[in-house]
Design goal:
The chain is of the alpha/beta class and 563 residues long. Helices cover 23% and strands 18% of the residues.
């Protein structure tokens, strides 16, 4: 079958045979919420027919599938492989819209918790939110959460306040202001930073008044936040034993249907006990943590600049399970799910009717697909290189007119005209290479090295580049405001951005390139205006400065003992 030009084969086909004669199960995948089935290998919820039968033909019948995950979730979570699905992007919007249009439960509309990736500002989906909701959706409130702040270094004092103002401005620009907008928070769903504050805010203002829906663009971190809240004071204490975690991976659109957990009722007693726990934890220093806590804290510090711990006040007492070694568990191949033995089914906890009859739920919804995004053009391996998963270390270069900066083979910035050198600071995944060239040889370098190791992404040589769209230019004129403050960011779709710093009143003519069909944004004011100051000494004989990584900040710990 002929492929569309410029489209990479991002995913492999299913492994194992389907059986079209078997009807869908009626049981949801505990990773993505899709209905488990074995009749269509490229539809959501697919489980190979032989595995499906081993789980569903026991005494429990279809109930034996509860807790199982579809092949897509299994491959994503354990092998980072994306299974090719027949799922139109519009279907994500339809699922979200249909969920929001449900009649209000408990006499009150839901709270919408919109999660945006601060690296993607201006958020491409935020302006679509009013249209997605529509005038007939009785939402009781909107809380906007800026995620992934842990990936960005502090370029000056008060940088978090400035980031929050950028998110507030993006909300206003999207037409979201006034009564529906409850608050704007900054968090890291991955490292836990800001999440205890978010939970306290939800419990103080929303209490348990109605359901909560997590909304956002693909890859904004919704499933990671869902999983963290599931093991926090926001969730009923027994829920983690009865609710499986959402599949978390770097692949856009991971959550296919609605996953949910029951929200705990924040009574006065519970809020008091929670505050006491938080106060006690805030008196500790790092030196007072256990060896396991220190090890985990250091792990998070390597991943992000901002770190927080999400604890639990309300723990359910459980007896220690007896570990039964099963050698059959070791014999599964990559394409099978080792959680399930063909002869044994572990007993799963279930909620009782009384536990959930009046429950308010927190729903994780499918991500809204970002259009004109470079990630849509990339293969599995390429996506892993482009999406930052660890604290971003800025890379600064001083360029003269006539010089060119490449961000892999996904973006290019030419310095065409100017009187003086200017500073170009790259904020992107640490795995993406930055190459400096001149206008006279830049085209030749791209032709020779795009698809090769020097530029790294895309990868796959000439054959890969034949199907990859060409870079298209956009001219940009900027006026400098000083040698320590950037005037603008040139955002190269979702590949990253280049902050441009120039002498005061210095006029620059630049030409920036991104792949055809992707969005290039000039972001004014820049997200991190003082980013060029985070650098070491100039590397002799090159345009580059040595990189410098600021220290991490740990939330809710005393300063003494902090490194």
């Amino acid at each position: 079958r002929e492929r569309k030009p410029g489209r990479a084969r991002r995913a492999r086909g299913p492994v194992g045979r389907p059986d079209p004669s078997v009807p869908p199960s009626g049981v949801s995948c505990s990773g993505c919420g899709a209905e488990l089935q074995c009749c269509d290998g490229v539809a959501p919820g697919f489980v190979p027919a032989e595995k499906y039968r081993s789980l569903s033909e026991g005494p429990a019948g279809a109930a034996g599938l509860r807790g199982a995950v579809c092949q897509r979730c299994w491959l994503l979570a354990h092998h980072g492989r994306a299974l090719q699905l027949r799922l139109p992007p519009e279907q994500h919007r339809l699922v979200v819209s249909a969920a929001l249009r449900r009649p209000p439960r408990h006499g009150r509309g839901p709270l919408l918790l919109y999660l945006l990736d601060v690296l993607e500002l201006p958020d491409p989906v935020l302006p679509q939110l009013p249209g997605l909701l529509g005038p007939d959706i009785p939402a009781a409130g909107l809380l906007v959460v800026g995620n992934k702040v842990d990936l960005l270094p502090a370029d000056s004092r008060g940088h978090l306040g400035r980031l929050r103002q950028r998110v507030v401005a993006a909300c206003a620009q999207a037409g979201l202001r006034g009564a529906p907008l409850v608050d704007v928070r900054l968090v890291s769903a991955k490292t836990g930073f800001g999440l205890e504050g978010l939970i306290s805010r939800l419990q103080r203002s929303w209490k348990c008044a109605g359901d909560v829906y997590l909304l956002g663009a693909t890859n904004s971190g919704k499933s990671t936040l869902f999983n963290t809240l599931l093991r926090s004071d926001y969730c009923k204490s027994r829920a983690p034993d009865a609710v499986d975690r959402a599949t978390v991976s770097p692949w856009p659109g991971t959550t296919l249907n609605l996953l949910k957990f029951p929200i705990i009722n924040p009574t006065c007693d519970r809020i008091f006990r929670r505050q006491e726990r938080l106060k006690e934890e805030a008196t500790k220093t790092e030196d007072q943590l256990s060896s396991e806590e220190k090890k985990y804290l250091n792990h998070l510090k390597k991943q992000g600049y901002l770190v927080g711990e999400v604890g639990r006040t309300f723990q359910r007492q459980k007896s220690s399970p007896v570990v039964d070694f099963d050698p059959d568990m070791l014999s599964y191949s990559i394409d099978e799910d080792p959680r399930h033995s063909p002869t044994k089914h572990e007993e799963r906890e279930e909620f009782t009717y009384n536990e959930v009859k009046d429950a308010r739920w927190c729903f994780d919804t499918p991500g809204i697909v970002k259009e004109n995004c470079v990630l849509n053009l990339l293969t599995e391996k390429e996506v892993k290189l482009v999406l930052p998963t660890h604290a971003i270390i800025p890379r600064t270069f001083i360029l003269k007119p006539g010089m060119v900066l490449f961000l892999a083979a996904l973006g290019r910035v030419d310095y065409l005209q100017g009187e003086k050198p200017a500073w170009f600071s790259v904020v992107a995944s640490n795995l993406l290479p930055v190459r400096i060239a001149t206008l006279s040889n830049a085209d030749a370098i791209y032709e020779k090295h795009a698809g090769q190791e020097l530029l790294k992404v895309p990868m796959g040589g000439e054959e890969r580049m034949k199907e990859f769209p060409p870079l298209v230019p956009q001219d940009i004129t900027l006026k400098g405001i000083g040698t320590t403050e950037a005037v603008a960011d040139i955002k190269l779709s979702s590949a990253g951005w280049v902050a441009v710093t120039a002498h005061a009143e210095e006029k620059l003519l630049l030409r920036a390139y991104t792949p055809k069909g992707t969005t290039l944004v000039v972001r004014e004011p820049p997200l991190l205006p003082y980013i060029s100051t985070i650098r070491g000494a100039r590397i002799a004989g090159t345009a580059a400065y040595r990189t410098k990584k600021p220290p991490s900040l740990v939330e809710n710990l005393k300063t003494a003992g902090r490194r």
